[in-house]
Amino acid sequence: MNRFVKFLVLLAILMVAFFIFQWIRGFFADDVAARFADEEPFSIRFSVQTEEDAKLLSISRLMLYPAEKKAVFYFLNTASHFPDEEDNIANLSAFSADRFRQWVGSGADYNLYFTEKNMGRFIDFLGGMQIFLPQPVVIKDSRYQYPHGIQFLSGQQAMEFSHGAIPLERGSDHLAQLDRLFRTESVILNLLWQLPARQEFLESDGVIPFLYGLADTDLTTEEFGSLLLYFASEEDLDVFVLETPLQFEEDPKNPYEKRLAVNEERCEEHYNKFLQEMRTGALDTASFPMDVQNGTERGGLAGRVKQFLHGSGTEVLYADNYERKPLPESVVLERSGSFSVARRIAYKTGRSRDRVFFLRQPLDISGTFILGEDFQIKDLKY
Checking DSSP bridges between strand 331-334 and strand 367-371, what pairing results, if any? Predict the structure, then answer.
């Protein structure tokens, strides 16, 4: 064997060794951290399902845009069905239910699945979460009560609040299913909004590996940790929720009920509208309507606040009294599913992050400022 041949053999061995090294390294590399560093968009298929029969309770595509510091959950209502499927989406696997590629323009880069029990344990391990309810919420066959005001939720409570049905009159089950998804979105938004307060805890030894063990995912432990810490450390990250458009159909099995169907023709258009608003900056600058409610015994206070906010360029549609007085602390209640809107209302009203809550509702207002006994006019900002 001459020297040239020996050189080629040695070169081939080195190349094979290099590719094997890179292949092995790939199992331990943190691809998520690299995507954040490179500001590369990517997406995650996210779902929560029942423990016993693996029925989908919620499914969404989480799209992340690091360059814009935006993230959006695009939810499917699992009580709806695709026009070419008889079964509801709840009875499909997460993979089969995911038709987002044709609407958002790309497939999922990763999967992140939880059982309902493990999602509850996830929330418990983080120390629970808080929500604000302007009125009591009644859940069918519930183990817990949900009175008005600021409420602490354990993981089990959060899952019951997310997935339980509200009692409605006959023929309104489809409306109850719409409300269920809005409550699911509210839990996700509140959990992520409150996550920065847990950053130090998340960085403690053993926390990320434990939480990772609760998920069924193709993320590595390091990638899972990078994802969580991104949400916890980027306090100016804006998270949004969207729902796929639906249409009502007659239910052939129940003449008294309507059936929900995914309006696939509008799903891409709906998402593209969000993308356009993100790329033009409209998500951060467009005006939004809100209302002010007086939870104090000081007469006319809501009207004065409305006048001030109007003068600072904020569109306030209503000024009224809060039904349950007195409210000890003022709160911001974001209703449209937007961290950006929540952040701007909090700034205008002088509220700290821990007094901002999300309750997703399809109203003609994007947020509500409820005045509590702690409120002073000097809190407001132009």
Answer: antiparallel
SS3 42: strand
- How many C-beta atoms surround the C-beta of residue 17 within 10 A? 10
- AA identity, residue 59: I
State the burial class of residue 14 (Cβ atoms within 10 Å of its Cβ: 0-12, 13-18, 19+).
exposed
Q: For residue 350, count other CB atoms closer than 10 A to its CB.
A: 15
What is the per-residue pLDDT for 187? 98
Report d(CA 36, CA 41) in Å as an integer: 8
Residue with tokens 């990320």: 208
Residue 323: the pLDDT is 93
Q: 326 preceded by cis ω (within 30°)?
A: yes
pLDDT in tens, 183-242: 999 999 999 999 999 999 999 999 999 999 999 999 999 999 999 999 999 989 999 999
CA dihedral angle for residue 149, residue 150, residue 156, residue 161, rounded to 10 degrees: 50
Alpha-carbon distance of 72 to 339, in angstroms, equals: 10
Among residues 26, 45, 36, which one has the least CA distance to residue 228?
36
Across 27-31, average pLDDT: 70
Model-wide pTM > 0.85? yes
| pLDDT tens by residue, 90-108 | 999 999 999 999 999 999 9
Contacts of 254 (CB under 8 A, 6+ apart): none
314 CB neighbour count, 10 Å cutoff: 22
Angle, helices 116-125 vs 155-163, to 10°: value is: 140
Q: Where are the alpha helices (DSSP H) in the chain?
A: 3-28, 31-37, 94-97, 101-104, 116-125, 155-163, 173-193, 199-202, 207-213, 221-233, 264-280, 282-285, 301-311, 339-349
Residue 259, judged by CB atoms within 10 A of its CB (0-12, 13-18, 19+), counts as buried
How distant, in Å, are the alpha carbons of 143, 248, 270, 278 from that of 65?
39, 33, 17, 10
Q: What distance lies between CA 243 and its chain's CA centroid?
A: 11
